[in-house]
Amino acid sequence: MSGWYAIVDGAADPRLYPIVSECAKYACLYEDEYDPETLAALPYLVELNEGEQLPDLWRKHESGGFWGIVCQSALDLPALRRHLRKFTTARLPLGEVVLFRFWDPRVFVTFAEDGTEEEVAPFFEKIEAVIADLGSEGRRRYSWDGGLVSSFAKPKSPASEAHS
Predict the structure, then answer these.
(1) Is residue 127 within 8 Å of residue 45, measured between CB atoms?
(2) What is residue 158's predicted lDDT score, i.e. its pLDDT?
(3) CB 54 within 8 Å of CB 114
(4) Are 44 and 138 in contact (CB under 8 A)?
(5) How many domains does the chain divide into?
(6) Phi and psi torsions of 107, nearest 5°
(7) Quick one: pLDDT at residue 161?
(8) So what's the pLDDT on residue 153?
(9) Distance, CA of 10 to CA of 16 (rounded, Å)
(10) What totals of helices (H) and strands (E) does the chain contain, helices first?
(11) Domain residue limits at 135
C-alpha cells in the first residue's frame, strides 16, 4: 500500500519545523549534529497522516509558499529516506559536487522537465508520483511510465475557492 510523504524545506518558513517535529513519523534528509537554528532549516521527510496538523496545513496554506514537494511511495519512511538521500547532491558538468535542493518545487519542476532520462528515471524508481505546488502557476503532478508523465491543474479562481 502506498503512502504520501512531504519533503519539507525547513528553510522556506521558520514555522514549519515545530509542526514537523510534532508529526509521528519524520526524519531529516541529512545526517549530522546541528545547532537548533540549522536543524530548523533542514529538509525533512514526513509521513502524512490524517489527524496531524501538517497535512491539513499543507492542503490549506502551502500554495505559493514553496514549502517542499509531496510524493507517493510504497516504501516506508526509512527506506524512502535512504532513496531520497541519493539525490541531495549533484555533480556539475565541470565535476564540482553541489547541494541539490530537489525538495524546492521550483527546482524539482526544472529537474523533472529538463533532466535527461538517466537523471530523472532513477528518482522515480521508488516513487509513484510527485506533486509540486507552484503557487499561482498551480500544482503539477509527475510520474514515470517509461518517460515523464505530467499533469497540470490550473489554480482555483477566487470565486471557486469561496464556494469550496
Answers:
(1) no
(2) 40
(3) no
(4) no
(5) 1
(6) -70, -45
(7) 38
(8) 65
(9) 6
(10) 7, 9
(11) 3-162
- Give average pLDDT by consecutive 10-residue segment, the chain, 164 residues: 94 94 96 91 96 90 90 98 97 94 97 95 97 91 96 54 36
Instruction: Report how far residue 83's alpha carbon sits from residue 29's, in angstroms, rounded to the nearest whole number.
Output: 10
Interacting residues of 24 by C-beta distance below 8 A, sequence separation 6+:
47, 49, 52
Strands (E) across the chain are located at 3-9, 26-28, 43-47, 68-73, 89-91, 97-99, 129-133, 139-144, 148-153
The pTM of this model reads 0.89
68-73 β-sheet, strand order = 26-28, 43-47, 3-9, 68-73, 129-133, 139-144, 148-153
Q: C-alpha cell of 32?
A: 549530522
Terminal-to-terminal C-alpha distance of the chain: 29
